[in-house]
Amino acid sequence: MIKHLFAVAAVCSAITGTAQKKADPQTFARSITTTDLKNHLNVIASAEMEGRDTPSPGLEKAAEYITAHFKKLGLKPGNNGSFRQTYQLSRDSLAVLDLTINGMPFKGIDEVAPIWTSDDKLNLNYSEYAFVGYGIVDQNRDDYEGLDVKGKLVVLIAGSPKGFTPSVQGRLASTTFTAKVRNALAKGAGAVFIATKEIPPRSKIKVSYRPEWEKEAPGKAAPVFYISADVVEKVSGHGFEEIKAALDNGQTKPGMNQGSVTLNYQLQKDRATASNVLGVIEGTDKKDEYLFITAHYDHVGKDAEGNIYYGADDDGSGTVSVLEMAEAFALAKKAGKGPRRTVVFMTVSGEEKGLWGSEYYSENPVYPMDKTTADLNIDMIGRIDTERMSADTLNYVYVIGHDKLSTDLPVINEGMNNKYTKLVLDYKFDDPNDTERIYYRSDHYNFARKGVPILFFYDGMLKADYHKPTDTIDKINFPLMAKRAQMIFYTAWEMANRDAMLKRDLKLPE
């Protein structure tokens, strides 16, 4: 923070002495209220929206609500006369899933469910399989030691042994689902079965989607399936917990096992669509330069048991903050107070599936990327980080990207925050050693990889209710959320009205 002190003082002085004499942004920031945020979120995160999966009727209802709000404010359509930017999806419906082990049949979806396959049709036949315990590969542990699994079926157990501490924590830990699959594939597995106590409800959904532009992805990865504890117990003759306990105390070890395994899998192919929603406030003397304010309006929908994942914080909070900032800028426009640059308010879909909507926009931009001064992305600003134990828990926000791509970013953001809102701006997730890899996990990244300076605002809610049905409106801290949204508005105000676009004088880290 100290290294920016003189620059921050300079920008505060410039703000006081020039543009802000013409227009006081506080007048418009005050329109961002807890009442309005709550009213919007009561719609976006309602049961009627059914978790806003991409695609789904609930997502479409949310898009219609956002579009209606943009129209009401007088925003112009952001995509050549339309408020929508639509992209195509491949719709995959499960038609066949049959698993037989040693002559015993198992029920598709209830006892075996797909996690990943690059094929529309599979006929797997194995006469043996490699049981690799927990499938962990770490500094001083390799559950594959002495086993050649190339081209073979690999069976591993979800979770980790009692008392085991991975050498790296967080998203990169060797005990994570992703790390286990990655290691199995790296060792040449022909297919992977992950044994779990129960098939996760979200994996029992029989219809899945993927972007059409990924259909022709080069290469094929080994298919990955869940199998339930029932499968393990029937095949082995031992209880699931008994097997785990034996692994933990060394009585059972990884090894090759004889057994006839056949799996038949087939998808029925169809098509679907999803869309981003774009509304625009045209600039004045710099209208051919653009500032983006973004959030994803999708969430993860419902599971096979009908539980709704409301996504009030993730990212209902960001979505409704965009709506409120659009209103603040619209009021300024009507009052003849700018903005000088064109401000594009974009809510994107498909973020939860892999940043689909923002990826599509970045590859098919409506506005030139080289004329886009910055993207301010908001993904979860309505909660308090339950892991944060410092005294500022009611007056902070995590800011990601401040030291990447442009040295102007912290100067502007810190200057406006110090002048107006005085939140604690925490740069924890900009640490190169951040094991959660937050910088790469939301829609701003698809702007950053194209060279556009970004700031990402986030509350840190990774554990409590993250991607659970319990991410509900009653957990939102609306006063703190409004303060955070106002701070982002002030930052956007300066970026939209300053004389020069942001410098692009730093490299994006690898």
Could you describe the 3D structure shown?
This is M28 family peptidase. A hairpin with a 2-residue loop joins strand 2 (84-101) and strand 3. The protein has two domains: 2-89 and 273-497, Aminopeptidase (3-Layer(aba) Sandwich); 91-270, Glucose Oxidase, domain 1. With 510 residues, the chain is of the alpha/beta class. It has a 16-stranded mixed β-sheet that branches. The longest helix has 23 residues, at 312-334. Helices cover 29% and strands 25% of the residues. The chain has 14 helices and 18 strands.
Q: In terms of topology, how is this protein built?
A:
Blueprint: H1 5-17, H2 19-22, H3 26-29, H4 34-44, H5 57-73, E1 76-77, E2 84-101, E3 104-106, E4 112-116, E5 121-131, E6 137-138, E7 141-142, E8 153-157, H6 177-186, E9 191-196, E10 207-211, E11 224-228, H7 229-236, H8 240-248, E12 255-281, E13 286-296, H9 312-334, E14 341-348, H10 351-354, H11 356-363, E15 372-378, E16 396-400, H12 408-421, E17 424-426, H13 444-448, E18 454-458, H14 478-497
Parallel strand pairs: 5-8, 8-9, 9-11, 13-14, 13-15, 15-18, 16-17
Antiparallel strand pairs: 1-12, 2-3, 2-10, 2-12, 4-11, 5-12, 6-7, 12-14, 16-18
Helix pairs in contact: 1-12, 4-9, 4-14, 5-9, 9-14, 12-14
Provide a quick synopsis of the model:
By secondary structure, the chain is an alpha/beta fold. The chain has helices at 5-17, 19-22, 26-29, 34-44, 57-73, 177-186, 229-236, 240-248, 312-334, 351-354, 356-363, 408-421, 444-448, 478-497, and strands at residues 76-77, 84-101, 104-106, 112-116, 121-131, 137-138, 141-142, 153-157, 191-196, 207-211, 224-228, 255-281, 286-296, 341-348, 372-378, 396-400, 424-426, 454-458. The protein has a 16-stranded mixed sheet that branches.
